[in-house]
Design brief:
This protein is mostly helical. It has 10 helices and 3 strands, in the order H-H-H-E-E-H-H-H-H-H-H-H-E. It has a 3-stranded antiparallel sheet with strand order 2-1-3. A hairpin with a 2-residue loop joins strand 1 and strand 2. Helix 5 packs across helix 10 and helix 9 crosses helix 10. The longest helix has 30 residues. It is globular and about 60 Å long. About 15% of the residues have low confidence.
């Protein structure tokens, strides 16, 4: 089990959100993978006894040439170890999705996403500190409890034990959680506009259209479900749109910070 903090998760979110618009231009490399899955030859070769020969082997991330320092942000290092951990976590998630979709993981794009996201988090951390935000011991303790819950653990002691098993000292973990608290304080200080009624109605119409399209694809054999009303879905839609707007504001702030930052990339 890998210990995952919200800072790591946020870093991945920033990078992936920034590349959403590029997905349509990405090359479709799924043909070979789909063909291998269909004929089973690639998966069967070298399969261990008892394994499903039609289940393709999980690919491994390429981390051989990662330097000790992957980037410097205003003189602060982003270590190769931090990069490798974030990259491996996201790679494994995408590899599992790729097995279902038949598409391969574009490692070159993923490498850029991970590096950009870690640089973004470092810029936010520096900005939070420069802006005078600080994390109290009580706030760090509260976040450690939330971290334990996010990792399906019952106590903070279990989180500390898990971190130690992965070579992370209590001091290092508390420092990372403190960084997370300060970044959250910075984010909460940003003015983000509320979703407009037009945006809410447009999002609702999109959901209705998607549901109707799915029912049409399923045909007569599919179970027809009633489309919820706008008022029923309003809380969910407002929350989704608010999160989207907050992410866009964070990304825009990172872009502004990066324009004035001294960033050196070594990978």
């Amino acid at each position: 089990m890998k210990l995952v903090t919200s800072v790591a998760a946020a870093a991945l979110l920033f990078g992936l959100a920034a590349c959403d618009n590029d997905d349509a231009d990405a090359p479709d490399n799924g043909g070979d993978a789909a063909e291998q899955t269909e004929n089973g030859d690639a998966a069967a070769e070298g399969a261990e006894p008892g394994e499903d020969p039609e289940q393709p082997e999980m690919p491994e991330p390429d981390l051989e040439d990662v330097p000790d320092v992957v980037a410097e942000v205003n003189g602060e290092d982003i270590s190769g170890e931090e990069y490798s951990t974030a990259y491996e976590q996201q790679f494994m998630q995408m590899a599992m999705q790729a097995q279902m979709s038949g598409q391969s993981v574009d490692e070159e794009v993923l490498q850029e996403q991970i590096l950009d996201s870690l640089i973004g988090v470092e810029l936010l951390s520096q900005d939070a500190e420069d802006s005078g935000y600080a994390a109290s011991e009580d706030e760090v303790d509260e976040e450690l409890e939330a971290l334990a819950e996010r990792n399906d653990l019952e106590t903070v002691e279990e989180i500390l034990d898990l971190a130690e098993e992965q070579g992370i000292s209590e001091e290092e973990l508390r420092e990372e959680v403190s960084q997370e608290v300060m970044i959250n304080q910075l984010i909460e200080s940003k003015d983000v506009e509320e979703p407009s009624e037009d945006e809410i109605e447009e999002a609702y119409e999109q959901q209705v259209a998607q549901q109707e399209a799915m029912q049409e694809m399923e045909g007569e054999d599919g179970e027809e479900t009633e489309v919820p009303s706008l008022e029923d879905l309003r809380p969910q839609i407002e929350e989704e749109l608010s999160t989207q707007k907050e992410n866009e504001a964070i990304l825009a702030h990172i872009d502004d910070l990066r324009e004035d930052a001294d960033v050196e990339v070594h990978i």
